[in-house]
Amino acid sequence: MTSRPILPGSTVGILGSGQLGRMFAIAARRMGYRVHTYSPDTDTPTGQVADLEIVAPYEDLDAVRRFASQVRAVTFEFENIPAATAAACSEYSMVRPRGEVLHTTQNRIREKRFLSQHGLPLAPFREVNSLADLELAIAALGTPCILKTAGFGYDGKGQIKLYNPSAAEEAWRRANGQECVLEALVDFACEVSVVAARGVGGEFVHYGVVENEHKNHILDLSRAPGRVSERVQSEAIAIARTVMEQLDAVGVLCVEFFLTKDERLLVNELAPRPHNSGHFTFDACVTSQFEQQLRATCGLPLGSTELLRPAAMANLLGDIWQDGEPDWAAASAFPSVKLHLYGKLSARPGRKMGHLTALAPTVEDAVAQVLAARAALSECVGDKKSSI
Ligand code: AMP
How would CATH label the architecture of 188-386? Predict the structure, then answer.
């Protein structure tokens, strides 16, 4: 059943207050919506552009209910929201995607069970709840392998690589008794992702296959379109569609994959929200992933995902601040490169502070430009220092 769309002029709410919420809020305000954001933090990337920043813990269900009663629809930019918070929102407002979608995808074991149940391809894994489980799992999967905590994992947080079975005890000690999964280390040819959207009537759109390079488990560079065969493309898109349909997800969802050297796709993880590998869509597509999230959340028809020009996106981590403020003017000297900064107050190493997107006639050109622009940010800082 589809309800009437929530139209511009209405207020929408977003749980979470990071860069994904910020770009959602920018898209929403551009279309004439008001935006309320809810998180435990102040002066946040989202709060800086929202109409209202509510600062309270996710567990404060009275505050959550007040937030939900003041908006027409609630969406998320952070999937580790307690199930009770999503449930409290749904007493007062439309919640998209449904809280159950978050529940499945916020825990690696539930997510892997869901994917296996639907026959979707995964890297070999075992559930681990004790040192004995871990030892059996290592014997079954071999080394190298990766132990990951089942909850609250992203960007390599909560991951321990094991190169030798004798490392089991130390790894289990570091996991601190938390529920985990052990995964075989995949010797992949590359990593790819599909960002897709599903509307209230079940309509499905996608942004094609994007190719991603990670450094220290954190996304570093995305190229769109990715360099994969047509068969891989259609398989990856079909998997993204199955995932969204089987989860009955309304909104945006990203499926991250490993592509093996013999061209097999293995699902790495799901994110039921806009994703870092879809940031290029803000500048390079007719409708960005953030506007698509808004449209889906509000029950509007989805927009075109057409790629206007090949694009590359490079993340800006806190590390580039280590020698002082990056040279923004130097990066601005690249006329086809767009700068996005998230307004975060402190630049810690590994923290996502912003990104650059380059548009060019070919994706290789876009990659060259975005990397040159990123290098220029700190080259000049180094030059200035050495000339002092
Ligand atoms: P995750 O937080 O699980 O997405 O992991 C972040 C990154 O770590 C991935 O994008 C990969 O680059 C790497 N990684 C995670 N799991 C594996 C695995 N099983 N095999 C190889 N690389 C992995």
Answer: 2-Layer Sandwich (3.30)
